[in-house]
């Protein structure tokens, strides 16, 4: 009752009794919702530029009578009451509102050409982390179990968008977009098999890369992967312990789709790893020794074949997968300092470690290029694309400077 009285007061303050979208944050907070629900909440109430008390009341009463927790309320608002789940397009206006109104995103005001890519990146990360199915849907139970709603609420209190590492970090977006741009040579937001094999200097098993195009982790077989496909690949590649990554790489390695990784399938992928070892000049590990090590890591219930549940129970899924998918990562882990994590430090995920390292290197390169300009014989179109990525780098540097001063 008190919330409704506050809302009535807000509408009464307007000369015509109607609120604009930009002023709806006060209504959103008055009823106890997190601030960044404001854009979808307004759009759930009104399809025009203004919202009346009557329109608000109709939606509010429906929410109170049919939605009894935060997750169900959020689904009702974003889907405008049409579905019991969320789809890809439901998040676009919410993320655009974050770009337009969050203090940590103000440096993008003059770069609208990057808004669409940021929205796509954040949306892809949301579905990657939250959706437990391989269709682009998020149900109420998945919202309850995941951390998206909590992260969305944190945005209201955290002025530095890069401190919100889950979903919204601009630094993470910058890393993902730059990594894609490096292999998308014709810059049409699609990459071929040969493009993908160039990622990370070819350290990912080429047989695994080929499987990405066979419909294992995409809706159907394809000759090109989209930017969204690449985002899912990069997240899975750099943090193979993530729940989605565990399923992602299991699908890739399960050649016959029978739900098991057989000894034949393990050998098939390891054969390509042996070739990588020879190129790296490192001592080769026999297939038998490799499979024994893998089985020791996973300890499957059935000794000669591995299920998805076996890998999920494994304490080191990244090490298991890297034996067959990325020998360089496997060797790096074997040679790592076990005491590298300092006591008292907040533990970082493998993805966060990767993104932080790559971001620092990309910014250092960008700053170097700004100081030491050099001449290249690029064609006009290539020069334009290079300049476009340079703008993105300058925006990233601007963001760093803003918060280093703060």
Give your account of this protein's structure.
- This protein is mostly helical.
- It is built from 21 helices and 8 strands.
- The strands form 4 sheets. Strands 1-2 form a two-stranded antiparallel sheet.
- Helix 7 packs across helix 13, helix 13 packs across helix 14 and helix 20 packs across helix 21.
- It is globular.
- About 1% of the residues have low confidence.
Q: What is the chain-wise order of helices and strands? A: HEHHEHHEHHEHHHEHHEHHEHHEHHHHH
What is the count of β-strands? 8
Q: Which secondary-structure class do the elements indicate?
A: mainly alpha
Task: Report mean pLDDT, rounded to a whole number.
Answer: 90
Label the overall shape.
globular
Tell me the fraction of residues in β-strands, as a range: 5-15%
Strand order of the largest sheet: 1-2
Cα distance, first to last residue?
Answer: 41 Å
User: Rg, please?
Assistant: 24 Å
Bin the helical content. 55-70%
Largest sheet: 2 strands, antiparallel
Tally of separate helices = 21
Low-pLDDT ranges: 374-379
Per-chain topology:
Blueprint: H1 2-12, E1 18-20, H2 25-30, H3 38-45, E2 50-52, H4 53-66, H5 70-78, E3 85-87, H6 92-101, H7 115-130, E4 137-139, H8 140-145, H9 148-154, H10 170-183, E5 190-191, H11 193-197, H12 206-212, E6 225-226, H13 227-238, H14 243-253, E7 260-262, H15 263-280, H16 287-298, E8 305-307, H17 308-313, H18 317-325, H19 327-334, H20 350-371, H21 380-405
Antiparallel strand pairs: 1-2, 3-4, 5-6, 7-8
Helix pairs in contact: 6-7, 7-10, 7-13, 10-20, 10-21, 13-14, 16-18, 18-19, 20-21
